[in-house]
Structures are given as structure tokens and as C-alpha cells.
Amino acid sequence: MENQTLSNGVTIPMMGFGTYLIDKADVKDMMQTALDAGYRHFDFAEIYGNQAEIGDVLSQTDVAREDLFLTSKVWNTDQGYESTLKAFDKAINDLQVDYLDLYLIHWPNEDNFQLSLDTWKALETLYKQKKVRAIGVSNFSEDQLKQVFDMAEIKPMVNQIERHPYKTQAELGAFDTANGIVNEGYSPIGHGHLILEDPVIVELADKYGKTPAQVVLRWQIDTDFVVFPKSSKPARIKENIDIFDFKLDADDIKKINALDQDKHLNYD
């Protein structure tokens, strides 16, 4: 496993396991498959509706808590200072842990951005209380990040954004990096069917003797994005993490970068 180092010195595994849209009934099998395959970084959220079931798995695993990197996110309806603190307490109770490794604001509040700023103050409080090892945001633009910078005691350590070969996020990713923020990319293979059939990706898969998904995930890591693909198929879960025995050539990275269409496949 390769790692990134956050601005406060905490290390985060570059490859994680996403839990979005995993049915409650499937959580036990999928989480156990991921743990057995070697995943130690897991990405959760209150809105996913499966944190309690995930907590049951975590309470029974033989993997030591300090060997796991656990992320959750505060949802829009819980934004605000006091409500964020309550949402955090619910998250760690559901997950049956004493602390989180990373806590994020899931979305900037579209109607009242001041709520997001109040939420950030709550995250700073949790960080100072050592209930979280790192704090960050998700889906924040450059302008929104600047507003956080203006009022923050502690700058965001992570920005989790949609990122795949059809939306490479070059400008925002560079801004994050310049400000000491580690980039995380969700939908890292772009829901598969669109990107994995692209002729450039297929050609590179043949060149490296890997699957198209493995090439795209390797591109993410080679360009310094932390990723957490989600799959309900055991074979795919194992395949996704099997990308640490090769790296893409610089020219091949440029070929994938050139596929950018600034195309959102999720909510903008």
C-alpha cells in the first residue's frame, strides 16, 4: 500500500474502499471481503444509511483499530455547530469506535454557506478534542475553500471531489495541493461503463497487462489522488487493490489526462 501524508503528519492510505449504495444486507460480506483483500482505509457517510451495519463488522474484526483509517462525513441536514457535534457522536456510536481518522463536510450548503462555516468550527473543536485525527471537506470549490481559509484556525487537510479521466479536476486539484490539501477522488473509474471502454484506456490495459479499471486507479494514485472504489463483486474488490506492482509512464499519464471533458457524472 502507498500512502499520502496530510498537513498534520497523519498518513492516509492511497487506496480505500467505498461504501456508497452498499445494501445493509450485503455490508457484512462486502466489508469482510475488503478486509481480507487488504483494505484498511474505509470511506463512510451518514447519508449512505449503512454505518450501523458497518460498525457491527468493525466490532468483530481481528484487525486492530490503529491499523484502520476510517472516514465519515456530516450530511447537509446536520450542518451547523451543535448539530454537527451531535452528528459526529452518532457516527462513532454507529461505527462502534472511539474516534475517526478523518471527518468531512459532505457538501457545501447551497442555501446558507454560513452553516458550512459553522460546521467547520465544529470540526475544529472535534480535532482539538482529539476525537478525529484529521478534518476536511468534500465537493468544495476553490472559492468556497477560500472562504473557509478566511475564518479557519485549522485549514482543511482533505478535499474529496469527483475525479475520473473525463473530469480530471486539474485546476482545483492543483489549488488544493498548493494549499497543503490532499486530494481524494470519488467515482474514480467514472461508473465504469463509460470510461473503461475508452480506446485509450483499453490500449493501456493491454500494454500493462492489467484491466482497464486497474489502469484508471493506477492513474489516480500516480497523480496523487487518494481513491476508494466501491464494488459489490468479490473478484472486483480484490482486483481493485491489486495495483501496487506497476506504475504508469509519464507519457501514458498525459494520454489519460488528455481525455478530460470536464464531465460531471454526479451532482454538480
TrEMBL record:
Q: One Pfam family name from the record? A: Aldo_ket_red
Q: Name one GO molecular function term.
A: oxidoreductase activity, acting on the CH-OH group of donors, NAD or NADP as acceptor
Cross-referenced CDD domains: AKR_AKR1-5-like (cd19071)
Where, by residue number, does substrate bind?
H106
Q: Which PROSITE patterns match?
A: ALDOKETO_REDUCTASE_2
- Keyword field: NADP, Oxidoreductase
Family label: Belongs to the aldo/keto reductase family.
- Give the NADP-dependent oxidoreductase domain ranges: 17-260
Query: Which protein are we looking at?
Result: Aldo keto reductase
Q: Where is this site: Lowers pKa of active site Tyr?
A: K73
* UniProt-listed InterPro entries: AKR, Aldo/ket_reductase_CS, NAD(P)_OxRdtase_dom_sf, NADP_OxRdtase_dom
The annotated active site, in chain numbering, is Y48
Organism encoding this protein = Lentilactobacillus senioris DSM 24302 = JCM 17472
The answer to whether keyword Transmembrane helix applies is no
